[in-house]
Amino acid sequence: MAPLIIVSGPSGCGKSTIIHRLLNEQHVPLRLSVSVTTRKPRPGEQAGVDYHYWSVPEFEKAKDAGRFLEWAQAHTNYYGTLEDDVGPWRAKGVGVVLDIDVQGWEQVMRRCPDAVSVFVRTTSLATLETRLRGRATESEDAIQRRLQTAQIELARADAYDHQIVNDELETAIAEVRTIIASAFAAKQ
Length: 188
Ligand code: 5GP
Known about the structure:
Layout: E1 4-8, H1 15-25, E2 30-32, E3 36-37, E4 52-53, H2 56-64, E5 68-74, E6 77-82, H3 87-91, E7 95-99, H4 102-111, E8 116-121, H5 125-135, H6 140-154, E9 162-165, H7 169-186
Helix pairs in contact: 1-7, 5-6
Bound molecules: guanosine-5'-monophosphate.
C-alpha cells in the first residue's frame, strides 16, 4: 500500500500551493484526491479538478451509502473524500494526498492508522487574515467564519504527526517534500 498523506490547515495558509508544487515535481507517484463538496465553485475552479460539485441530496445519498472515507460539514457546506478515490490508488502503488479539515483527519486516522498527517499553519492569525483578504474571493462574513474555524483548528495542530509553519513558501515546500519522501521510504 502506497502512503496516505493528510494535509490540513486553515484556509489561506498556503496548503494548496504547497501540495500542487509537490505534485508537479513528480519525485514519487502521488495524486491528490478530488473531494466532493456542496459549495459552489469559486471563479477559476474546475469541476472534477478542484472538486466534484454535488447537490446536497446527491451528497447525502452517497454518505448514507457509506461511500465516503470521511466527510465533514464546514462553513455551512458538506465536504467529503470518496473511498473509491483513495484505496484503489494506494493498492496500485500510487500515494494519495488528502487536503481535508480537522474533522476529516480525525476520521481518517481512525480508519487508516498508517496515514501520515501534516498541519500547515502561519505563525500568526494576523498573517492568515491578510492572506484571506488578499485572495478577495470571499465576503466579510465568510472571512470571519474562516478565521473562527482557523482558531478551532489551530488548537488541534499539536496532535498531527508534523506541523509546518508556512511563513516562507520554499522552506515549507522543502519540509513537506522530506515528509513525503520518508513516508514512501517507510512503505518500501
Ligand atoms: P475550501 O472551501 O476553501 O476549498 O475548503 C474549506 C476547507 O474544507 C479546507 O480546510 C479544506 O481542507 C477542507 N476540505 C476540502 N475537501 C475536504 C474533504 O473532502 N473532507 C474534509 N473533511 N474537508 C475538506
